[in-house]
Write a structure and sequence with these properties.
Layout: H1 11-16, H2 19-34, H3 42-56, H4 62-89
């Protein structure tokens, strides 16, 4: 079942979907909502990773920390790209 933002399913309709149809519907909704979100800033990415590790009783390794830094840099570049596109699409540049 495909997600239609103009005609969302009610809770009872969602409950009546098969597992496969529900997953397809939720995947479609996630793809639709992604267009309105920005990448997570590096500070929060690292913060949530460390909080998650503490809750699980584990620690962040040096390699994991390096990966977090790499992801933070990629997310920042994506965020900058999205902001530049928004500025270009706006006539006033603001």
């Amino acid at each position: 079942m495909k997600y239609d933002p103009k005609n969302e399913l009610s809770d009872s309709e969602l409950e009546s979907l098969s597992d496969e149809a529900l997953i397809e519907y939720l995947d479609g909704k996630a793809e639709y909502l992604k267009q309105f979100s920005a990448p997570l800033p590096g500070y929060y990415l690292k913060r949530y990773a460390y909080i998650d590790a503490a809750n699980r009783g584990s620690k962040i390794t040096d390699e994991h920390h390096k990966n977090l830094n790499k992801m933070a840099k990629e997310y920042r570049q994506e965020s900058n790209r999205m902001m530049a596109e928004r500025l270009k699409s706006n006539e006033d540049g603001i």
